[in-house]
Amino acid sequence: MKSKIGFLCALLFGQSTHIMAQLPQDSRRAGGIAVIPLSQNIQQVYYKQQQVLIIQSKDQRYAVFGIPLSTPFGPLQLQTNAEPIQIEVQTYPYAQQYIKLKDQSYVSPDQAQLERYAREAEEQATIYKSFTPSNWSTFPDFITPTKGKFNNSFGRKRFFNGEERAPHSGLDIPAPTGQKVIAPAEGIVVQTGNYFFNGNTVLIDHGQGLISMFCHLSKINVSKGQSVRQGDLIGLVGKTGRATGSHLHWGMSLNNARVDPQLFLKK
């Protein structure tokens, strides 16, 4: 009997792994992703009036929900066109990072710099809140946008010159200035520009509220409105904006929540 049960469990586990193979990794923490199976009567899912991505994988539909970095651990409820969905957000041991900056303006900006940052933040917020259609038949595969070893820089609580700032909302990939940065998946370039903190930046809309961001570039090689395929050159690594060294800041936003880019990569 035990062997039959073990065989059945292995079979079910194998099927589940196969079904989930094309989806992001499920990690139910602040800054993580919840991949939620949906019943047939649920057609739309929302969180705080923000539409959530839904995708078909094999014979099952899933909501792929980005959990905001500011979310406290505990129960969290999503709204649908039918019954609400409740998930449990787990604690996660994000590290702390202490950074020394020579340019104090990146720690305590003056009034003009604060006004510039506010304009830029609003411009980016409008993009993150957008929800455009997609023609996916499966969830898009993502690849790393530049070469380099990276650690778990996402979510770190940061202190600049001893002053606490917001947690790090992207993944830093150390790389030499001038190294190629490519599109990790197909999409539309929805914004490019030079920002106070982010430096030279490119944003790509992959559809259904899934947006990628690439910061601190030394050169931008695409323009707003341009379609890109996976692997297309979008820019070169640099250290523009608030950066202590040459690297790529790769950010991912899902339903207007900044989430860990590593969750989109195959293990």
Molecular structure report:
The structure is a single chain. This protein has helices at residues 2-20, 111-128, and strands at 33-37, 45-47, 50-51, 53-57, 60-66, 74-80, 85-89, 96-99, 157-160, 163-165, 171-174, 180-182, 187-195, 199-207, 210-217, 219-220, 227-228, 233-236, 247-254, 257-259. It is globular. It has 267 residues and is mainly β. The strands form five sheets. Strands 11, 13, 14, 15, 17, 19 and 20 form a seven-stranded antiparallel β-sheet that branches. Strands 3-2-6-7 form a four-stranded antiparallel β-sheet, with no helix packed on it. A hairpin with a 2-residue loop joins strand 4 and strand 5 (60-66). The model is unreliable at 1-21 (pLDDT under 50). The protein has two domains: 2-89, Peptidoglycan hydrolase domains (Immunoglobulin-like), CATH 2.60.40.1590; 115-148 and 169-264, Glucose Permease (Domain IIA) (Distorted Sandwich), CATH 2.70.70. Keywords: Hydrolase, Signal. InterPro entries: Cell_wall_metabolism_enzyme, Dup_hybrid_motif, M23ase_b-sheet_dom, Peptidase_M23_N. One of its GO terms (molecular function) is metalloendopeptidase activity. Residues 31-82 form the Peptidase family M23 N-terminal domain.
